[in-house]
């Protein structure tokens, strides 16, 4: 099972770049000064944590059990750092997907795909004849299908959600969570997460496209809203959820410049629990990879073109794997 998991992970590592690194986005973080992540010592129980929050006039938003933290709206006079029971306090920054997102999910050039049959223009997903995108073939996914098609592998997409009614995804979506409001309404109201999910696990059903692992179990972890924005605490909460629910692989097609201890703490815990994590290195034009891709527990992916040349918008430093990142067709 572990060998099969590694095979799937390696393919998803290379194919994740198809959406996370072709000119889709540049992520940045904005500080929300009134919203903080307060991380307590491991021995501090729930009652004591709540008393400390109340003492400092803060309002509790949510618990993150994996790192023994509480996300709060703080008052003007809070001083959590003075508490011996508090390990550290960090700003709950906002992770944003840039407005200039370019999805390739409609019409495509024949040169951009390897066809089982050619896709027709101006059709609904149900009417589109199935194609294998060029990047899927480039990384050798069809050959991998002789070994495994991803069955039994649980992959979580931490993003804007997944379209649960998409005809090329629905059968593979097995569950999820909305970490923004902490419920199970994890449908995509932006499109980015659905695009990522299609690259990973679009079904082989004679319509649309085929993903790298067409029989994988997809889990939608909606941590970004309809604008592509989300607090880093919601991403941390999503990773926490993945640990609890025995997810095998986590995909994170976003990045920030801040090296946040809380984010790294939960990433390390996920790694200790055997979860393979994949993240885009960032679209920063030859610069350094962003977080969480920088963390040693995470595989950082950079972008190449049809000829294997590094694309100009891709990060270069800190990249672990290079993969197709241009003219990407997905759901």
Automatic annotation (TrEMBL):
Residues 150-327 form the Peptidase S8/S53 domain. GO terms for molecular function: serine-type endopeptidase activity. It holds the Pfam family Peptidase_S8. Keywords: Hydrolase, Protease, Serine protease. GO terms for biological process: proteolysis. SUPFAM superfamilies: Subtilisin-like (SSF52743). Signal peptide: none annotated. The keyword Disulfide bond does not apply. The keyword Lyase does not apply. Belongs to the peptidase S8 family. This is Subtilase family protein. It comes from Clostridium grantii DSM 8605.
